[in-house]
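A further point concerns the way the authors explain their paired sequence and structure data. An entry of this sort, consisting of the sequence and the corresponding backbone structure tokens, reads as follows:
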Amino acid sequence: MTFDLRNYLERFADVCRNKFGRVYNFTALEKDYKQLRGGERWLAARDVLKLFDPMRTPFRQYWAEPRERDLDAALKRDRLYMAPAPSDRELIERLLGLLHNIGTASLVLRFVHPERFGVFSTPVVNLLQIHRPTTVELFMAYCDELREWQKHFRMESVADTSTALWTFHDLTKGPDQAPESDAAREAFDADVWVQRRRAGQALRPFFKKYGPLELARILVEEHPKLAGKVAGEEYERRLRDIARRLGLRLGVKGSTEILFDRLEQNGYITLEQKTLLRRIWVTRNKSVHPVATLSQEEVENMIDTIEQICLAWDAQVW
């Protein structure tokens, strides 16, 4: 079984029938927002409240319906046009400032601009592994990621993509789901493109913020061998750099020992430090050999030694 997101959009009606006792025509509802989409008038309270009509959507099950009087006053005061907007960020920020809830704001955005926005769903956010420090950044990253899934699975819109992912989640979320749902989850887990996207969302912020030694220290408790590879590569990079400055060439048998001897002879490291560098070179070697085991303590000692000895070389004049 392969994972095809489009299949779950087709099953949305069945899920709604089982969960809510009826089906919904979102395509027809989108047509009600044509004037807002074209910038012909400003957003009114009736546009927002229509999205909570239980005959047309299930959203009242997930978000509280805004109070009509307060909403009407705020929208008449601000007169928010949904198009044209200088940027998605400004539109999201203004709408969030008026509605005070990203879920409710996302409903309006989804039906006015279905090609750009999806309904904000915490289960889907978790499914996609998206994390951002602010609400606006989270929703923007969410819609950006939905756009990637839309293109990959050839969906009609970002809105349809979020609906399909919500449907997939609902069909596979519990431990008591049918064997068909287990197979669907297995297909999702086995899809390399899907898992690359999810891993990228989870790991990319760490790669942008932290250097290799910091990453190794973060990873060491969860996976010492992987942390050892990350720290070991940084150790080797620093050894190669200092060898180049000394006119030595690493990569041949015994060249690392020659480098350590030269560093001690020239007064750049002490005998004790040479012993430590030798020890963590053994740790580095263990990290890249499949049969060797590596403990958290060994990797942490390697990271500490690199930071205490090797980082100081950057500031020295050779």
Q: What stands out?
A: Residues 6-205 form one domain. The mean pLDDT is 95. Residues 224-245 form the longest helix (22 residues).
